[in-house]
Specification:
The chain contains two helices and five strands, in the order E-E-E-E-E-H-H. The protein is mainly α. The strands form two sheets. A three-stranded antiparallel sheet has the order 1-2-5, with no helix packed on it. A two-stranded antiparallel ribbon has the order 3-4. The protein is elongated, with a radius of gyration of 22 Å. The protein starts with 9 loop residues before the first strand and ends in a 5-residue tail after the last helix.
Length: 125
């Protein structure tokens, strides 16, 4: 992705940034003026989401995985419902958990980039 350079930036107290030159957006369209708004509430929410993803939520997903693997062992639990759990319920649930964890990791990475962009643009106060 080519580097984007903003010039002629105006900053207001709520950290609005409007470029006067054309910029290429993520979709590849050209915008004559790009507005970025970053309030303290936005920065606080970003930090909270990052903390939730990195902290307790990731740990809880790991705990669910551990317990699901334990229940999937025939020497721990067996019978018709255990077989159903082992053969379909747990594999589907495990797949959904893995996908959710990956999506949360991707979200955390995007929020890291957003935070860095806010700081670079002068919204670090």
């Amino acid at each position: 992705m080519p580097a984007m350079h903003a010039t002629h930036v105006q900053v207001t107290t709520v950290h609005q940034y409007r470029t006067l030159d054309a910029l290429t957006s993520f979709e590849g369209r050209s915008n004559m003026a790009a507005r970025v708004l970053s309030t303290e509430q936005a920065k606080t929410s970003i930090k909270k989401i990052q903390s939730i993803i990195s902290g307790g939520l990731a740990d809880e997903i790991q705990k669910l995985d551990s317990e699901g693997r334990t229940l999937s062992q025939p020497d721990v639990w067996d019978g018709p419902l255990a077989s159903q759990f082992r053969d379909s319920i747990w594999p589907e649930t495990k797949s959904a958990l893995d996908k959710a964890k990956q999506e949360l990791d991707d979200l955390r990475d995007q929020l890291d980039k957003i935070s860095a962009d806010i700081m670079r643009a002068g919204g670090g106060s």
